[in-house]
Amino acid sequence: MWYRLGQWMLRVILRVYHRAEVQGLDRVPRQGPFLLVGNHISYLDPFYIAAQLPQRISFMAKAESFSHPFTQWFLRKVDAFPVRREEADVRAMRSALARLRNDQVVGLFPEGRRREAEPPTELKGGASYLALRAQVPVIPVWIEGTDRALPRKGRWIRPAKVRIYFGEPIQKIPAGKNREDQERIHQMIMSAFRQLAEQKVAE
């Protein structure tokens, strides 16, 4: 109940306060598990993206965010789970795989941390690994404006315009499990981010 209430409140905030534009939401599957991958420019990103989805989503969040009792309680309530970013976190991968195999939706930011609002030039391998192992579609999403709504050192959320673009699902997941197959998915995700960023520029 609290999750759905939070989604509704965030949608109102996005519509009224941020004049949000959301495109491609019809591309998001209504049923079944999938992996959602997005660019990351603000702490607001996972909350604003999750507010758009018809189903609950479990986002990977940096382990440091779980160090404070209140933030840990809050993140657990919204189905987030920790990942240690500076190492190959086997426990986080297993947790994500378990969720996907239980028909849940998992979200992550393959850049590994907040970056500038531009097409990424480097991604970590967790997203391609999970897609290959779980054999689930990958839904790319590009968000912009949240870095102006809540800058890195900002304390208040500003009324900056926010745009969220959902891309075409990556569904042709190779059946193999070798490095070449994982690299193919990796390049598909990178290409999807570039296309969404170019779409944003074209508009």
TrEMBL record:
Keyword Nucleotide-binding appears in the UniProt entry: no
CDD domains xrefs: LPLAT_AGPAT-like (cd07989)
Coiled coil: none
Domain Phospholipid/glycerol acyltransferase per the UniProt entry, residue ranges: 34-146
Gene Ontology molecular function, alphabetical: 1-acylglycerol-3-phosphate O-acyltransferase activity
Family annotation (InterPro entries): Plipid/glycerol_acylTrfase (IPR002123)
One Pfam family in the UniProt entry: Acyltransferase
SUPFAM superfamilies per record: Glycerol-3-phosphate (1)-acyltransferase (SSF69593)
Alphabetical keyword list: Acyltransferase, Transferase
Top-level taxonomic group: Bacteria
Biological process terms in GO annotation: phosphatidic acid biosynthetic process
PANTHER family: 1-ACYL-SN-GLYCEROL-3-PHOSPHATE ACYLTRANSFERASE
Protein name: 1-acyl-sn-glycerol-3-phosphate acyltransferase
Originating organism: Melghirimyces thermohalophilus
